[in-house]
Amino acid sequence: IACLLAILLSSATAFTQTLSGIVTEKASGKRLSGVSVQLAGSTMGTTTDSTGKFTLTVRTGRNRLRFSHTGYLNKDTVCTVTGTQTGYLQIILEEQREELDEVVIVSSSRTNSRIEDLPTKVEVLGAEEVQEENGIKPGNIASLLGDIAGIQIQQTNAATGNADMRIQGLQGKYTQILRDGIPLFGGYSGSFSILQIPPLDLQQIELVKGASSTLYGGGAIAGMVNLVSKKPKLGKPEKSFTINRSTLKENNLNLFLSGRNEQTGYTFFAGGTRQEAVDVNKDGFSDVPSVKSVLVHPRLFLYGGPTSTVILGYTLGYEDRNGGDMQVLDNKASAQHLFFIRNKSLRNTGDITWEKKLPSNAQFTLKASVSHFNRDVQTQLFGMRAGQLTWYTEAAYARKTERHNWVAGMNFNGDDFKRHLPDSSLIPDEQNRTVGLFAQDDWKWNDRFTLQSGLRIDLHDRYGTFVLPRLSLMYKMNPEITMRLGGGLGYKTPTLFNSEIDERDYRYLAGYALSVKAERSLGMNYDINYKKKWGEWELTLNQTFFYNQITAPL
């Protein structure tokens, strides 16, 4: 496309002029914010604001501009500029349809960046993989996570079927699990976490390997998993229904609905699992526990035009998990057949998110979540009943410029653990409060080098102050080879509960010794990636090296 901006009024000695314009979408005509405008052959560029407008200083003469935006085809415009008056352009971008599945946006970065632009190592299981898993294992995502290199799903209790997700060799307690950027499980409420999330309710799963405490706080020593829920799409309602019966006597019934108009939208998930106890090897003990669970997750979306979104969510989760001696499970207990472990839990969670797009390609996000969890543990030796109240609030501001992509914010979170009598354990009640400040910047030196630097300061009411820096460098040697090198500090405050402890051993726990300190960590990662396409064929090779050091382990 060629455009002639003939300015005949003034001096021929001017060498630059201001060029402005507006970018709209072809299908709907709406103005597009965040469109990148780049002047070929130079480092000059800008982005459109919240109204779709841009302003750029260009040279007199012939200029080639490239307009690009996630989900749209790139558009090149050649303009011949003369004179000194301001020129004006109207650019129309067409939605990208055929290759849209190759554009992966990572919300865990807080800046909604493309996966290929991130200096940190991120694995993403997209909509296709999640949908496929729903047809294979609709009850939970444990086996799906086990397909990622560097992750092992390890069973920690044969009776209850509990499983631990180990990243780069470290136990599951060093991995932080998020739902839409909000911490989901931890402490007393952390058991059976990955066994209680069905895939039908998810859009994608993002996994960051290595020290990730800068943005999300302590606990992400080995890495972080962010479960991204589905969002309604304008003009594309969804109705999905899954019914499943496996040879291991697992029954699943899941339903997902979504819809949206200009002002409001909704998603609704409801699902249930009934798993019968199974003794696979015929030794008299359950290899697959009895499970009865229900999960309900509705979300309401309120749109204040193209720049503001409020999301209201609620989650109800109930589970009754029972394993042990098959005769006990069949209500035929005797003096020789007594062993069983039963966990009954009820979780209620409410959350709210406000996303506001601001001028100059910036965004403000406010999040809050409150969750109440009750868990009743019963064994042939003892029982305990307790509850945990957790909350999380966060405010963050992010902005993109030509060379920088940065985010800063603060959060406040805490939890209260209380025993419910009658309870035969010795575990004390406890409370934790943490205030965190964080900032991170992705600095793109040029097309090959990107440096990510971040710093977090957490103030914990019991264990003091933690300063957590992080650095990561990405080098694109050529279009096929990319290398990343990074490292950072982390920490984890002590907890009496993790999936490696047999519930029968809880009766030995009586609190913390005076010498117990928070665990501190140093993590470093290096990876090299090769990716090559030949038509419809693609070859991907990846090699990762990692080092983790934990001091004062509990």
Question: Can you give me a brief rundown of this structure?
Answer:
The chain has 554 residues and is mostly beta strands. It has helices at residues 127-136, 142-145, 213-216, 326-329; strands at residues 2-5, 16-25, 36-39, 45-47, 53-59, 61-68, 75-81, 87-93, 105-106, 113-114, 122-125, 151-155, 163-167, 175-179, 182-183, 202-209, 223-229, 238-245, 250-260, 264-275, 290-303, 308-324, 340-358, 362-379, 383-400, 404-419, 430-444, 449-460, 464-476, 481-492, 519-534, 537-551.
Characterise this structure.
The longest helix has 10 residues, at 127-136. The protein has helices at residues 127-136, 142-145, 213-216, 326-329, and strands at residues 2-5, 16-25, 36-39, 45-47, 53-59, 61-68, 75-81, 87-93, 105-106, 113-114, 122-125, 151-155, 163-167, 175-179, 182-183, 202-209, 223-229, 238-245, 250-260, 264-275, 290-303, 308-324, 340-358, 362-379, 383-400, 404-419, 430-444, 449-460, 464-476, 481-492, 519-534, 537-551. The chain is globular. It is mainly β and 554 residues long. It contains 4 helices and 32 strands.
